[in-house]
Amino acid sequence: MVEAACLYLWDINIDDLDESEFRERICKIIGEPANKWTVTKAEMEEQCKKLRVDPFGDVASRVVSFMERVNNIIETTGWKSQLKTPNMLKTFIKVVASCITPFDVRDRVEEQMKTVQASTLVEFSKILAEQLERTYQAELVMKSRGGDRKRGRDWDEKGQRTGKTRVQLKNEQYQREAYYQNGNAPRPKGGYTKPAPVERGRDGPPRAQGATGGPSTNKYGTPATARRTFDDSEQPTKRAKYGPGQDDRGALCFVCQQPGHRARECPNKKEDSARADHLRKGKNAVKRFKYKQRKAELKAKRAVKAKIAEDGGEQRWIRLNGVFEVPYCPDTGADQNVLPQRMLEELMKLQPDLMVVTLKEPMIGMACNNLPFQANAYVDLALQLQTAAGPVKIPGKRRCYVVAEGDEFLASDDTLKAIGIDIDRLLEQVATLQLEDDGDDLEEDGDALKEQSHRSTLRIKASKAKLPEAKDEVEAALQDLINEAIDNQFPIENVQGLWRVLTKHDIWRLKFDGSDPPARVKPLKVTPKDGCVPYRCKGRKHNLLEERFLNLFAKELCDAGVIKRNQQSAWCSPVNP
């Protein structure tokens, strides 16, 4: 065999073949495929036509099981060496993508492969996992909305409708009819055959029995039953159609279906039926009452909406706890959210377990036109503003004080500031633009106007807490904090003492001042234990706003000389200096 291989395969002399060269040639033969051939796309499609993605399970298990089947095909067919070329592997990936089920996932995978590189099976598996994750989330949404309920329709994992076809159902119908005609006769060996056409007479109609020499048969080959003949006087008359509880004799009793009396006078009526009728009538009366009540409420709501539409005013709506929408007014300048009692009662019908907290002492406030109002309770609600562009969700839950009267929900300034809407700041920007447009000759008057408005605001806030007039911006900021504490149920009798504590020492600043003396506290010392090894952790990740604040604050500290950069330190942080 070695001589034949040297003569016909390797074309060398057997005496020139040493052991190392022989081993090398044998290993080369073992490493190559048995036959040098190139796999075609048709062969790939034939081997991959049974590939399916599992219809159930999480995304990871479905992707792993599918790719495991792909690897089994590669190993069993011996395509591992064939798929080393990029073009052949790309063709194989396209064939595998065409076998993905369901079809909507397959289409999305093929579309994504046009824009995202999928030159290896690993990249293809990532694309498949991404699309299956999207499909899984969409299926959860559809199930929550009841979108997968289809009456009378069952679908398999391939996306095809299951059940019997129309031809199968029709064949079963023929068999049932033949069974009814033949009775309990066994099925013939050749099956039910179509009967021969009936011989017709010269004038057209079929001949009578005996005219052809045999009994007449139906289309299933069985003897036809003789039709009953009627005389002119015995022809059956078609019954006229009557209303419910009536016939040709007039009105009928609903109990015995006989004329001449009503159901309450029926002699065949049971003894306990009177109580059952009474209960049934009572239930029907309750249903009618509830229906009329719901109809009246819907009519009242339509009337309110129609009145708003006739007035031509744009109505703003806010959603409470995601279940109840009410009109609201955002530009009142209120310090707290105000909820009318009528709206709270409607919300309690939808959410009976809503917790309403009663205040120990009623809160007295001032509404429009200097009208006082009183709030005895509050409730924490999740608010969502409805706009033309879509809903705007306010973060967290907001405290809403309940008042006796009102037609609209009053949104406070803090609620609007939580989503970046500051009415005062917007007005200041407009005023600044107007002052710039008017010219330089009015600049001093504009500054005086802004200073006057700022002082009036300080006076109003100071009068609320009975505090002295603020001398500078620092005291004004402290008064704002005190007013906020009062809004959060801080006792009024302790306000004067709190003001004395805050203003006793000059320790408050609106921004960092590097010229201030250091604090009289002992410096922080860290004493490591024996045997501890220092460890440098990764820099903490911050969002853009926090990172910007840290950079600006660190720069301010560096400029003031409080801290300094130390690039030579072995444990310096790469984020903050």
Automatic annotation (TrEMBL):
Ranges where the CCHC-type domain occurs: 253-268
Gene Ontology molecular function, alphabetical: nucleic acid binding; zinc ion binding
Pfam families named in the record: zf-CCHC
Record carries keyword Calcium: no
Keywords: Metal-binding, Zinc, Zinc-finger
Region (Disordered): 143-249
Name the record gives this protein: CCHC-type domain-containing protein
Organism of provenance: Aphanomyces astaci
Lineage, highest ranks first: Eukaryota, Sar, Stramenopiles, Oomycota, Saprolegniomycetes
